[in-house]
Write a structure and sequence with these properties.
The structure holds two protein chains of two kinds. The model of chain A has no long low-confidence stretch (mean pLDDT 96). Chain A is globular. Chain A is of the alpha+beta class. Chain A has a five-stranded antiparallel β-sheet with strand order 10-1-2-11-12, with helices on one face. In chain A, strands 5-6-7-8-9 form a five-stranded antiparallel β-sheet, with helices on one face. The two termini of chain A are 21 Å apart. Chain A has four helices and twelve strands. In chain B, 33% of the residues lie in helices and 33% in strands. In chain B, helix 3 packs across helix 4. Chain B is globular. Chain B starts with a strand and ends in a 6-residue tail after the last strand. The model of chain B has no long low-confidence stretch (mean pLDDT 95). The chains are: A alpha+beta, B alpha+beta. The interface between A and B is medium-sized, with 16 and 17 residues.
């Protein structure tokens, strides 16, 4: 039994044309038993900034709370909202502070920066950042998601197409993983609005 | 080998817990009370390492009471649950962790709704319509998936609980003869008739 697959779940984020999307499954389970169906691993960190924490559920909640504390202090001191790059740097810093007793989460950050350019970043559990130009995946179904994203993603997708692509990628990857799925939630972040949609998946 | 379960309906919550304290193969006590009231409308059912259960529950209960004394109003169920989760999460990565699984049920008088929180020993917390801890959960969750409705009356809810306990008595290989039951609603915590396995139609 691996700690990272104790609760299960997956998060994926993709870049589009002046938009970014992040999606997660909704299962809360303990090993092979499903306990809850509304455990969204994605949290809002700013008006156009979202972060997902797949991994051990207790650390999902703890890391979210610890980061909220740090961003609250940042916003009070700097008197401005935190930007995606700075937020990603804070995530990496928090994780590396616990290098020899880590939090068992692999965060995914997705947001639009001040010029409405998309930014995505993923970390391993000790804070190694990876900010590519296409998509990032994390969770117990990450290998399945890599396959789906690699086939479906194209550069410069509009918001509607990006929603379709990310939904199909997440849903089909979760269908091939026993401990991910049970519903999905997709956030599409554009320059003037954020659309949250629940996606129907196989409920098993 | 313990089992605690909780079901949340529109205006009330039913919590049930077995009454057995056993060490390995020996039953030490048959009439254990696994409930800890935190305030007038807030009740916690705890199972896990004996000793930790009492120590942790009393610590939480006294802190909830302290908040009321300091601030002259009570913590809401959601705040109490989050406080409990924080205490459990902090202890998880400290010298010695509390090994307790708990269910916290409360009626929020401001929001006017009933809430049931599930927390496992790693401090993962979820607000759920129904949940259970222990091996009994394997038998009970399927039963509740099929028969649960949020708008049931107290009598129907109690019957649903009896059905779940009948399932545990029929299929779980450890004997849990009695379950004590509590009801939590806007008027507080009320004792219900305990459910005895031998009286159920199985």
């Amino acid at each position: 039994m691996s700690i990272m697959s104790y609760n299960g779940g997956g998060v994926v984020a993709m870049k589009g044309k002046e938009c970014v999307a992040i999606a997660s499954d909704l299962r809360f389970g303990i090993q092979l038993q499903t306990i809850g169906l509304d455990f969204d691993k994605i949290f809002q960190a700013g008006p156009k900034l979202y972060v997902g924490f797949p991994g051990l559920a207790t650390d999902t909640q703890t890391v979210h709370q610890r980061l909220k504390f740090r961003t609250n202090l940042y916003e009070l001191r700097e008197n401005r909202k935190v930007s995606p790059k700075v937020y990603a740097s804070m995530v990496g810093n928090l994780l590396y502070e616990h290098r020899f007793g880590p939090y068992f989460v692999e965060p995914v950050v997705a947001g639009l920066d001040a010029n409405n350019q998309p930014y995505i970043c993923a970390f391993d559990l000790i804070g190694c950042a990876n900010a590519p130009d296409d998509f990032v995946v994390a969770g117990t179904c990450e290998e399945q998601m890599y396959g789906m994203c690699e086939s479906l993603w194209k550069p410069d997708l509009g918001p509607e197409e990006l929603f379709e692509v990310i939904s199909q990628a997440l849903v089909n990857a979760c269908d091939r993983d026993a401990i991910s799925g049970w519903g999905a939630r997709v956030y599409v972040i554009e320059k003037d609005k954020v659309t949250v949609r629940n996606v129907r998946t196989r409920m098993d | 080998m313990e089992c605690i379960l909780g079901i949340r309906f529109n205006d009330f919550i039913l919590l049930a817990a077995d009454t057995i304290d056993s060490r390995s193969i020996v039953v030490m006590k048959h009439d254990v009370d696994k409930f800890f009231p935190l305030s007038k409308n807030l009740l916690m059912a705890v199972c896990g390492e004996s000793g930790d259960t009492t120590q942790f529950s009393e610590y939480i209960a006294k802190n909830v009471h302290l908040y009321k004394m300091k601030n002259d109003y009570e913590l809401s169920p959601r705040a109490s649950a989050n406080f409990t989760r924080r205490m459990l999460a902090d202890s998880l990565r400290s010298r010695e962790r509390y090994n307790v699984n708990l269910l916290m049920a409360g009626y929020d008088e401001v929001e006017k709704k009933a809430e049931l929180y599930y927390m496992d020993y790693l401090a993962s917390m979820m607000e759920l319509p129904y949940c259970a801890h222990g091996y009994g959960s394997y038998f009970v969750l399927g039963c509740l998936d099929a028969y649960y409705k949020p708008d049931m009356s107290v009598a129907n809810g109690y019957e649903l609980l009896k059905r779940c306990i009948a399932e545990i008595s029929k299929r779980f290989s450890i004997n849990l003869p009695t379950f004590s039951v509590k009801l939590i609603d806007k008027d507080g915590i009320h004792d219900q008739e305990p459910i005895h396995a031998r009286q159920l139609v199985i």
